[in-house]
Specification:
CATH superfamily of the domain at 93-299 in chain A: MetI-like
Largest sheet of chain A: none
Order of helices and strands of chain A: HHHHHHHHHHHHH
Low-confidence stretches of chain B: 1-42
Number of domains of chain B: 3
Helix content of chain A: over 70%
Strand content of chain A: under 5%
Number of helices of chain A: 13
Largest interface: A-B, 72 and 65 residues
CATH class of the largest domain in chain B: Alpha Beta
CATH class of the domain at 93-299 in chain A: Mainly Alpha
Largest sheet of chain B: 8 strands, mixed
Oligomer: heterodimer
Structural class of chain A: mainly alpha
CATH topology of the domain at 93-299 in chain A: MetI-like fold
CATH architecture of the domain at 93-299 in chain A: Orthogonal Bundle
Distance between the termini of chain B: 66 Å
Strand content of chain B: 15-25%
Number of strands of chain B: 20
Helix content of chain B: 25-40%
């Protein structure tokens, strides 16, 4: 197990180095002059050349990349062109808001998915099942920006039940978390439904049932544990995606997280901040992948990581 | 799989119905319980609640050069002189009086003696000198550096060959003298920019590049809280030098709120001042209750369609003039609900040197077609218009596209992101047509004519790559004139020549709008700067 973890960490370092190289190269490919982005539309040529020299933009690209990499290894992702602040600090400052939103949304999604998935499996091929399948499909199909806007107008502006966006206590968390959770819940519920109905037809469930276990007992004691396993992988990776920033939800709900930070950075061509947020997202996904694999092995002892299976 | 009896089945079918009922009831109770009486309770204090889409990039005056930063910097800091609340006249701020030498090379300021930073320390002339030296220090990458290069000794200081700027003298804590290398009649206006505000050197030394997060100035407010991307809160500076001001106890601005969400918050009373989204604008102006609360101000700005004078066929003045005749500006401003005034001059109304006698080019598609034919433009001519990718710009571009189609010019629209557009228009031979605008940094014709049409600005702000040696000579002559009437006359000659050469189609002067709550008073829009808030007050509500 330890050998596997070490190998994965080394692999992760290469992935991050590759990501940094790609994002760094992209920054040079996209149109837009960082010096103009920093100096503004009105800067004169003298100011622009001064800024280029101060930022090292007049150096060869590989020199700029190696300098960036050297600093990134020490945790310094550079300074934002627009905000003139340390990128690492800006990301870490925004991360808690995204973390709270992502974890809440994921917990809500899993709870709703379990509820819908179990119910639809329990009433397989009946009206309830069809209704729940329809609901889950609807939830998957609803675009986040639409759902978020409807919630804002409905629950916040009309009913005045929730704050109109912002990050101000648990009440402000409910609508954005629900917006994110509903789509995921619909998706997970469908997967769970399929896995559960398949699992209920397996031999080990039949054996349990023949020994006198009730249908619901067999579902909860035997089928559910196996049906939930694929969700671990999905939820783990989705959580990493959510933690990397949920741009639309954060923008609609004025949520001060990483997604909005990245969106603003792209809009302003703030290259250090774009690279910082991308690298941070890559780091989260690498870590999440590792955690998911370890968790999978722990939940399913048949998987032996050291043998590369 | 075991299937239970029909009775059991019916029983099980009931479960989800009951469950859904319970969930619905809990949600209703929860929603009801969450009802807020009034968000952002002010606890009896007079707080102005604002919202903005853009995060405040910085509160360090050395770095800020955008509306969001300046809106707060002018609340936190004092400059020697500043603009009046609703106009562009210079009025005393930290300086109680000043003298300008006849040759406009020496400026002497006498400071008020009762100015203190919000930490209680008295402000001295050295604090102003310190900040301008920060701007001139290339290590700080300040965009304001270009405005103070004319101070004697500034280039030496910037290149590291002098320890201080020789042309800034502080004979005593209450006097500061600027000696310029050459005459600059608009130097006062440059000192009204937040770049030249007083900051305490000891606080800057303590926090270094993080000074922005610990901003301390001598303005009417001081920083209480700044959560990036979330909220910024200023409270009254107890040491502010004007008695009785500010009238507000605090200003709180929510960050990241787009125009539509701002509008919802305005409607629910969560914020006190809001911008008006384009979709709501007609309705607001038709509703007397709301219209009475609308504030408007023609900005010191000009929107234009720039034609690249170095790319054929726009090298031909007949083509450029044809475009001027072909575009219907009245229709254009109607497209975005008259939030602009049709333009006929480069210098907007309100700017010294504005000349209302210039009539510009009237809408005359027949004349436009004649000129295009004379220039030999074929009927399938399809130039590309670069625009910033946003809804309003697209609407304007489509209106122009329709107008030009009537004279057999088939405009291709190319919407691009703002940073990309900025880079493209600076590259020679790249952008043949661009929809853009210019806002004044200070109220002087130089800030438009020199910056936008001088040959020296190719690759920077002269994005139509216009060059006329006679215009350049006039601009050089005007820049050194200290007699303002004479100066404006020379600039007027230059402006007329440029309009005759037609590198731009002058489109409109934008009007800025905002809406206040009925309980907000004293809020004034400025044509050139963000609104000042020290004289604003809020009734109990």
């Amino acid at each position: 197990m330890l050998g596997y973890v070490v190998r994965r960490i080394i692999f992760g370092v290469f992935v991050l180095a590759g990501t940094s190289l790609i994002t760094f190269s992209l920054a040079f490919v996209v149109p837009g002059d960082p010096a103009v982005a920093m100096a503004g539309a009105k800067a004169d040529p003298q100011t622009l050349s001064l800024i280029r020299s101060q930022l090292g933009l007049d150096q060869p690209i590989y020199v700029q990349y190696l300098r960036y990499l050297g600093r990134a290894i020490r945790g310094d992702l550079g300074r934002s062109y627009i905000r003139r602040e340390n990128v690492t600090r800006l990301i870490l400052e925004r991360f808690p808001a995204t973390l709270i939103l992502a974890v809440t949304a994921m917990v809500l999604a899993l709870v709703l998915a379990l509820l819908m998935g179990v119910l639809s499996a329990a009433y397989h091929d009946r009206a309830t099942d069809r209704l729940l399948l329809f609901v889950s499909l609807t939830l998957i199909s609803l675009p986040v920006f639409w759902l978020g806007t409807v919630m804002l107008i409905g629950a916040a502006a009309t009913l005045r039940s929730f704050p109109l966006g912002g990050f101000d206590g648990w009440r402000s968390l409910i609508l954005p978390a629900l917006t994110l959770a509903l789509g995921l819940a619909g998706y997970y519920a469908r997967i769970l439904h399929t896995n559960l109905t398949e699992a209920m037809e397996q031999d080990y469930v039949r054996t349990a049932r023949s020994k006198g276990l009730s249908w619901l007992g067999a579902l909860f004691k035997h089928a559910l544990a196996n049906a939930v396993l694929p969700l671990v992988t999905l939820a783990g990776l989705d959580l990493a995606g959510l933690l990397s920033g949920v741009v639309l939800t954060e923008t609609v709900f004025d949520w001060p997280g990483i997604g909005r930070l990245a969106f603003d950075a792209i809009f302003n061509l703030d290259i250090p901040l774009i690279m910082g947020t991308v690298l941070f997202a890559a780091f989260l996904i690498v870590v999440a992948n590792l955690v998911v694999d370890l968790l999978y092995a722990w939940l399913d002892p048949r998987i032996a990581l050291d043998k590369g299976q | 799989m075991d299937r239970s009896s029909s009775r059991d089945r019916a029983k099980r079918e009931l479960v989800p119905v009951q469950l859904l009922s319970i969930i619905f009831s809990v949600a209703t109770i929860l929603a009801w319980g969450c009802r807020s009486a009034r968000p952002h309770a002010t606890g009896g204090r007079s707080v102005l609640r604002l919202a903005t889409r853009d995060d405040v990039p910085t509160l360090d005056p050395v770095a800020g050069y955008d509306t969001a930063s300046w809106a707060f910097e002018q609340m936190l800091y004092d400059t020697l002189v500043r603009y009046s609340d609703s106009g562009v006249q210079l009025v005393p701020d930290a300086a109680v009086r000043w003298e300008t030498s006849a040759d406009a090379r020496t400026f002497t300021f006498h400071l008020r003696r009762n100015i203190r930073f919000s930490n209680g320390r008295t402000v001295s002339s050295g604090d102003f000198k310190f900040e301008i030296e920060r701007v001139l220090d290339p290590a700080n990458n300040s965009q304001g550096i270009e405005y103070y290069r004319g101070i004697e000794g500034a280039p030496l200081y910037s290149s590291g060959r002098a320890k201080s700027v020789a042309g800034i003298k502080t004979p005593d804590p209450w006097t500061i003298i600027f000696q310029l290398a050459s005459p600059d009649p608009i130097f006062l206006a440059k000192l009204a920019m937040p770049f030249a505000a007083a900051v305490p050197p000891e606080v800057v030394a303590r926090y270094g590049k993080d000074f922005s997060r610990h901003a301390i100035g001598s303005g009417p407010f001081m920083l209480k809280e700044w959560k990036s991307g979330q909220r910024i809160v200023l409270v009254r500076n107890p040491y502010y030098f004007l008695p009785g001001l500010p009238r507000l106890d605090a200003v709180s601005e929510e960050i990241g709120v787009d125009d539509n969400l701002q509008w919802l918050k305005y409607e629910t009373g969560e914020i006190d001042i809001a911008s008006i989204p384009p979709a709501e604008f007609p309705w607001v102006m038709k509703t007397p209750r709301l219209k009475a609360l609308v504030l408007s101000q023609v900005s010191l700005a000009t929107s234009y369609l720039g034609m690249n004078c170095q790319i054929p066929p726009f090298t031909d003045v007949r083509v450029r003039r044809a475009f001027n005749y072909a575009i219907n500006k009245d229709k254009l401003v109607a497209v975005f609900n008259h939030r602009g005034v049709p333009a006929s001059t480069i210098l907007p109304p309100g700017l010294p040197g504005y000349d209302p006698s210039i009539r510009g080019y009237p809408y005359d598609p027949r004349k436009a077609r004649q000129l295009l034919e004379q220039a030999g433009i074929p009927k399938d001519f399809a130039p590309q218009l670069w625009i910033r990718a946003d809804e309003t710009q697209m609407m304007l571009a489509q209106s122009i596209q329709q107008d030009l189609a009537l004279v057999d010019v088939h405009l291709q629209l190319r919407p691009v992101a703002w940073p990309s557009l900025l880079q493209a228009i600076r590259q020679p031979g790249t952008v043949e047509l661009v929809l853009s605008g210019w806002e004044a940094d200070f109220p002087d014709p130089e800030n438009f004519l020199e910056v936008l049409f001088a040959r020296s600005q190719w690759g920077a702000n002269n994005n139509s790559f216009y060059y006329n040696p006679h215009v350049d000579a006039l601009l050089e002559k005007a820049a050194l004139l200290t007699n303002l009437d004479e100066r404006y006359k020379v600039y007027d000659q230059a402006q007329r020549m440029i309009i005759n050469d037609a590198p731009w189609v002058l489109l409109y002067y934008p009007i800025s709008y905002a809406i206040r709550q009925p309980w907000v008073h004293g809020y004034l829009l400025n044509p050139m700067r963000p609104a000042r808030l020290e004289r604003v007050w809020v009734d109990p509500h």
